[in-house]
Amino acid sequence: MDTARSPQAHNPEPFHRGEIDAQERAGVRAQMERVGAVVLRNHMPDQHRELFNKLPTLLLGGTDANAQVWASIIWGKPGFIASPDATTLRVGARLCDPDPLSAMVKPGAEFGALGLEFETRRRNRANGIVTQVDEQGFTFSVQQSFGNCPKYIQTRELATHEPDGHGGQVVSGTGALPPAALALVRRSDTFFIATMADASAGRAHGADVSHRGGKPGFVNVGEDGELTWPDFVGNNFFNTIGNILADGRAGLLFIDFEDGDLLQVTGKACVLWDEEEVSRFEGARRLLRFQPARYVFRKNAFPLRWALREQSPNLEPTGTWN
């Protein structure tokens, strides 16, 4: 989504061509033309600012030096994210190697940001531009702010916060994912996806990161290493799908909430609309398919541990690939 636009009511078009195409295909274009101009803001409401301040994590999406898209996560003690005003987030932490985005947190870099409170299923987006970097962290100028509904988020409770988040073995490479990484994908009920649309999509372009949830096994691993997952009914913004239609670059982040492993993958994604293929997955409106290109798998890199409390009730009518 655009990190350079002003999503106020007077903005004649708050969506780029990929998002518009998806909305038209889904039959919701007229509705979203009205809703988007109101819901997409160029500032954070007070309740969004309050949520970010409470969180021990922040999800990020951006591009590396080779223009590949990655999803990432940064963490600290609650309060490490501050909001001195309605268009600024101050993040008191740094991404460190071997995170693929660590070298890209610099002034002028576009990032998508997502704040998610697993205990309450609250989530808010704040996309923007890095304006300042120092030893303690970075300052983020929010250009776009909007909320998301709590659908498909599993309730988790923070159990422990380990002091050492540097982790152990790091495995990185190209092509097919290693067995331990594939095992994490297959058992996951949650992952995060970063997407990007460049200026060729129109005024509404930039980085975005979003949550995806399902029953364990909702991400299928094909024999060729491709990943496929269902897209359920949502808010009809089509931020992620619109970026994929307009651009195709994507990055996935899988988290082992019990053991602290992190899997980051970058590659290309596409949307599958064929009714026969979509019907293979119960509850799906469409499918998304992802071809991995590069990955970074870090053992015990994430210092927080969350215990699963409740699966989203919205997932009851959905299935799995298993």
Quote the CATH topology: Pnp Oxidase, Chain A
Total domains: 1
- What top-tier CATH class fits best? Mainly Beta
What's the overall geometry?
A: globular
Number of helices: 6
Question: Mean pLDDT, rounded to whole units?
Answer: 90
What structural class results from the helix and strand content? alpha+beta
Give the fraction of residues assigned to helices.
10-25%
Can you identify the CATH superfamily?
Answer: Electron Transport, Fmn-binding Protein, Chain A
Provide a descriptive summary of the structure in words.
With 322 residues, this protein is of the alpha+beta class. The protein has a single domain (17-315), classed as Pnp Oxidase, Chain A. It has helices spanning 17-26, 29-39, 46-54, 179-187, 239-246, 275-278; strands spanning 57-63, 69-75, 81-85, 88-91, 110-117, 122-133, 138-148, 155-161, 170-174, 190-197, 206-213, 220-221, 227-231, 249-255, 262-272, 286-298, 304-310. The strands form three sheets. Strands 9, 10, 11, 12, 13, 14, 15 and 16 form an eight-stranded antiparallel β-sheet that branches. A seven-stranded antiparallel β-sheet has the order 2-1-5-6-7-4-3, covered by helices on one side. The model is unreliable at 1-12 (pLDDT under 50).
How do the helices and strands line up, and which of them pair or pack?
Layout: H1 17-26, H2 29-39, H3 46-54, E1 57-63, E2 69-75, E3 81-85, E4 88-91, E5 110-117, E6 122-133, E7 138-148, E8 155-161, E9 170-174, H4 179-187, E10 190-197, E11 206-213, E12 220-221, E13 227-231, H5 239-246, E14 249-255, E15 262-272, H6 275-278, E16 286-298, E17 304-310
Antiparallel strand pairs: 1-2, 1-5, 3-4, 4-7, 5-6, 6-7, 8-17, 9-16, 10-11, 10-14, 12-13, 13-16, 14-15, 15-16
